[in-house]
Design goal:
The protein is mainly α. It is about 65% helix and about 0% strand. It has 12 helices and no strands.
């Protein structure tokens, strides 16, 4: 869901104050924990608020954190109506839509299943990139990864049992949210590369636009809760301030230090942490096919992220929001 880098240069990003005191592996682990626990926070938030209200709250608090970062870094907002138009679409595909879909999905499915569905984003992304991005040519390894990944999805869903006991609507919404992430990243890669604006500026503007979108939609489909419970409120605040705001700053910092490929590995820890959190904190039940299928999904997703090695190195593409070359699948 990030100081300006020249359009043709690699990612240039200064670290959040004090972050260099911690090894990047520690920050990587914190990022994985925050995003892994986000599915639990969504579940708790929906116990006191409507799904759109949960989404609006997380976007509002996330925007507040990113706005503070922009002020501290004295960064400026992007310029140009065309850039803002593309950011509006990106805000819908990468924030407003998937965040809302996950919130609605978790009304009827466990947070563990939602976290596993989130791990299918690299699979959808690879499938779409074969059509939308000419530089992503299919290879045998990546095609095998795609096949293995979807076998894992079928295993998680218990396809051999006829999907017995599965909430089809909730699961479909979670998978659609992951698909929206994949579509959004391809859109960002094609339209927002080389704008001249910094990643933090683009991402902060994107999340802010998503907040405005939910500010319009939420009153139309929800009413104010009669009472506000403390635990769901704290869950929404943490989901926004940590999972949507601070986590983005952490991700940019890790990408700047170790590169997008290594940073993207956080994707494979998210469903593991989401599953552990759901079982340990919310007492959600697991059948054998859920963790086994999740491991198969992650193995397939890892294979789809392999890149063909070229004999002659080529200049890296321009940085995009959250470095969309190798995005982590955010919850």
């Amino acid at each position: 869901m990030s100081p300006a880098a020249p359009p043709s240069s690699p990612l240039v990003l200064s670290s959040p104050p004090g972050s260099r005191l911690l090894d990047w592996r520690v920050r990587f682990g914190v990022l994985a924990l925050i995003w892994g626990f986000s599915f639990l926070l969504i579940k708790v938030g929906t116990e006191g608020f409507a799904p759109f209200q949960v989404t609006f709250g997380r976007l509002l608090f996330g925007t507040a954190v990113l706005a503070v970062a922009l002020v501290v870094k004295r960064d400026r907002l992007p310029r140009g109506a065309r850039v803002w138009g593309h950011l509006t679409v990106a805000a819908f595909l990468l924030n407003a839509l998937p965040f809302s879909l996950f919130a609605y999905a978790e009304l009827t499915i466990p947070s563990t299943l939602a976290g596993i569905c989130n791990a299918t984003t690299p699979l959808w992304g690879m499938l779409l990139s074969l059509v939308a991005l000419s530089e992503d040519r299919p290879t045998r390894v990546r095609a095998a990864g795609l096949g293995i990944g979807f076998v894992g999805v079928l295993t998680v869903l218990g396809a051999w049992q006829g999907f017995s006991g599965l909430d089809v609507t909730g699961t479909s919404l979670a998978l659609l949210a992951s698909f929206s992430y994949a579509v959004g990243w391809i859109y960002v890669r094609r339209t927002l590369t080389g704008t001249g604006a910094s990643n933090l500026s683009l991402a902060g503007s994107q999340v802010g636009l998503a907040t405005l979108q939910l500010a319009v939609v939420t009153p139309l489909f929800t009413s104010m809760p009669e009472s506000v419970e403390l635990v769901p409120l704290l869950a929404v605040i943490a989901l926004g301030a940590l999972g949507t705001g601070y986590a983005m700053l952490l991700q940019y910092n890790v990408v700047a230090e170790v590169g997008p490929t290594t940073a993207a590995m956080v994707t494979y820890f998210i469903p593991v942490i989401a599953t552990a959190a759901g079982v340990a904190v919310l007492n959600e039940q697991l059948t054998w096919n859920t963790p086994v299928g999740a491991l198969v999904v992650l193995a397939g997703a890892a294979l789809t992220q392999t890149r063909t090695r070229h004999r002659r190195p080529t200049p890296p593409p321009a940085a995009t929001p959250l470095d969309a070359r190798q995005p982590a699948a955010r919850p």
